[in-house]
Amino acid sequence: MRLTVRLVDIAARGILLHQNDAKSLGVLPGDRIMISCPETGKATADYVETTTTLIDQGRIGVYHHTKEQLNLHESEVVEVRVADRPASLDLIKKKMNGEKLSRDDIRGIVADIVQDTLSPSEITAFVVSSYINQLDMDEIESLTRAMVETGDQITFHAGPIVDKHSIGGVPGNKISLIVVPIIAASGLFIPKTSSRAITGAGGTADLMEVLCPVEFSATEVQEMTMKTGGVIVWGGATNIAPADDKIILQEYPFKIDQIGQMIASVMAKKFAVGADVVAIDIPVGKYCKVNSIEEGRKLARQFIDLGERLNMRVECALTYGDAPVGRAIGPKLEIKEALSVLEGNDSPRSLIQKSCVIAGIAFELAGKSNRGEGAELALELLKSGKAHKKFLEIIEVQGGSPDIKSDQINPGEHFYIVRADSNGYVIDLNNHSLISIARTAGAPADHGAGVYLHAKHGTSLSKGDPIFTIYADRKWRLEKAIEEARRLRPVMVEGMLIDRVPNIREWTPGRSRTIE
Ligand SMILES: O=P(O)(O)OC[C@H]1O[C@H](OP(=O)(O)O)[C@H](O)[C@@H]1O
Ligand SMILES: Nc1ccnc(=O)[nH]1
């Protein structure tokens, strides 16, 4: 069938057909058609959407992606025919049925993810199929390798290359902003690529973006690392493991991070930058991705095994995840807290301790310090101000201002303080609820949004004391977050009323009771 092009300014994938043309072709919404340009001979497949009003019969609505692929112009005539289904759909179904995927199967799926052959809902199907029928170690290795092979890789001619990564899941986990400059200040190289928020209210890339650009090519990452010793960039922009970010985009709304894909997501980024040694932070807690020490050990073993298969030396730290790291949750609040620690502030101690433990493991793995002495070296580099100086250099090389000070960073202008409604000690913090409130307030997209905790486990509060403050860049978002905080009550104070269950049945006081 020949159709006339109408360019439609929509960024997503897809092709818009009049319902009658779709019927003549024998396709339904979601089916694929092959569009070829007789003039250039170029062809590409895309999935169909249909309309009865937006496009006239005889025309084809071409979205941005296909326009770019085929270099199409308004009113040009193209040839359209039914396209084959991508073979990877059957492979995803294989996983849905609980079968094991071979290396070639996984290569096929990842290639189709990277080339945008699979639609977002089809990628979601892959995520869900491996969420229900977990990936085994061979499948995780294949996924990691396929993610690396379909993207750019960096080779450093100096070494050792050090890296760190957290599996996430604990709010306020801003330690990369402290660990990376500590490691770079020691003279080691750390080309750190991070993802944006997956289950949280601010990934490291979202945080760093408050201070400077985070989108660079693999070559730029390499050059900047050689110059300063370290960078903190967004993995999704580098074309390092490009499938990773496309998968994460589908996980974000569900707040899920399937274990096998998580391991591959982390390790692909490490492998692609040529890391020799890697320290992995696994937060463990009631509301974390990993809920018990036992589960944490199992996951650590998987990271170490995969490291061996890929020739990287990996060590994992199971860390305390029952409470947020530090007190700040959300991009600007977290940057402010991390920067103030680098500037020499002595608190929050949990943040300093955790950062030094992880940097210490990396030092020991890289042979920079003896076993058991790495954290001490990390603390020295932090206390001496060398890590702070290095952080400012990293900001500058990425295009930000090296004069930035923590007291110049202000969270959102709209805020609300939640206060204790009884005396007592803080006995529980619900990470999921805190993240939810910060996201409802606008984090991570609104950089000023988030939650600042005034009290953590064991803090003694009197009625009326502040427990946490919610910040937002927009008033309506703050209002929604306050509503959510009232409903979720993320901080439990001993002696506090948990909920009141009203009796809504009609009742007249004093009415005499009758005994039947
Ligand atoms: O949103 P959730 O699931 O908490 O985790 C995502 C965060 O965890 C990792 O941190 P890092 O890169 O090691 O600092 C990721 O890269 C990302 O920034
Ligand atoms: N799935 C992931 C978890 C944490 N970090 C990542 O980069 N990816």
Number of helices: 19
Strand content: 15-25%
- pLDDT average, as an integer? 94
Beta-strand segment tally: 18
Q: What is the radius of gyration?
A: 26 Å
How widely separated are the two ends?
82 Å
Q: Which residue ranges are poorly predicted, with pLDDT under 50 across at least 5 consecutive positions? A: none
Q: Please, how many domains?
A: 4
- CATH class category name of the largest domain: Alpha Beta
What is the CATH superfamily classification of the largest domain?
Nucleoside phosphorylase/phosphoribosyltransferase catalytic domain
* Computed structural class: alpha/beta
Bound molecules: 1,5-di-O-phosphono-alpha-D-ribofuranose, 6-aminopyrimidin-2(1H)-one
**Main beta-sheet strand count, sense and barrel state:** 6 strands, mixed, barrel
CATH topology of the largest domain: Pyrimidine Nucleoside Phosphorylase, Chain A, domain 2
Classify the helix fraction into a percent range: 40-55%
Q: Could you give the order of strands across the largest sheet?
A: 1-5-2-4-3-6
Binding site for AMP: 169, 195-200, 204, 265, 289
GO cellular component, one term: cytosol
EC number: 2.4.2.57
Keywords: Glycosyltransferase, Transferase
